[in-house]
Design a protein that fits this description.
Length: about 200
């Protein structure tokens, strides 16, 4: 399943941060707001369980999340998405996967992976602003599956059709949410029109 999120506030932020002259501090805070605005869409079908709540006056039926949520940012750029999701889901825990795309082969290389033991029973939201060839997302899902996770949602800012196709084909069980579905990749694997290198723009490198 692929969903492009057309909310006016998301599209407004995206139009600001795409601009080549948007400075890092503005870019960072805008990505954080987009992440927060995307959260309700990502979480709309999370399972809940019934519970009884005692208010100061009486007892009422309520609903709680059935499983823990684990946010998994793909380093580095996924970190830019993290705080916005944590603003909305403060009880979530965070696990990290570090991937770097080789600039000539465009293949991802893992340089860090820290998935907690209990992650198998969690609802995982995988975070990466850019879905380009899809190689990094597929590798991250492979690692999560190997850790026993079977509930994975993928959040990105900008997706290329090529990456959506690769990820959907390799991991059909993963729901993909993007603020924008862009046109295509260029010969260097960058998304067009895109926003450039998300990691560099977030961290001012
Ligand atoms: C970027 C981006 C994704 C990946 C997407 O990260 O944040 O992780 O490229 O490309 P793909 O879909 O073709 O795999 P990069 O490897 O440049 O590392 P960075 O986040 O440290 O900048
Ligand atoms: N990674 C980025 O940061 N930007 C792109 O356009 C593609 C991959």
């Amino acid at each position: 399943m692929f969903q492009e999120l057309h909310h006016p506030l998301i599209q407004h932020e995206l139009s600001l941060l795409r601009h080549k002259d948007c400075p890092s501090p503005i870019f960072r805070s805008s990505v954080r707001r987009v992440a927060a605005l995307m959260t309700p869409y990502l979480c709309a079908d999370l399972p809940t369980t019934n519970t009884l709540v005692t208010t100061p006056l009486e007892t009422v039926e309520g609903n709680c999340l059935a499983r823990p949520i684990v946010l998994v940012p793909i380093l580095r750029a996924g970190l830019g998405f993290l705080d916005g999701f944590l603003d909305m889901i403060p009880q979530a825990s965070v696990a990290h996967i570090g991937l770097k795309r080789d600039e000539s082969t465009l293949q991802p290389k893992t340089y860090y992976s820290n998935l907690p033991q209990g992650i198998a029973g969690s609802d995982v939201i995988l975070l990466d602003p850019m879905l380009a060839t899809g190689g990094s997302a597929v590798e991250a899902v492979r690692q999560l599956r190997a850790a026993g996770v079977n509930s994975i949602r993928f959040a990105c800012l900008v997706a290329a059709p090529e990456g959506v196709e690769v990820l959907s084909h390799a991991c059909p069980e993963v729901s993909i949410f993007a603020a924008a579905l862009d046109r295509c990749l260029n010969e260097h694997g960058y998304i067009l029109p895109g926003l450039g290198d998300a990691g560099d723009r977030l961290f001012g490198t």
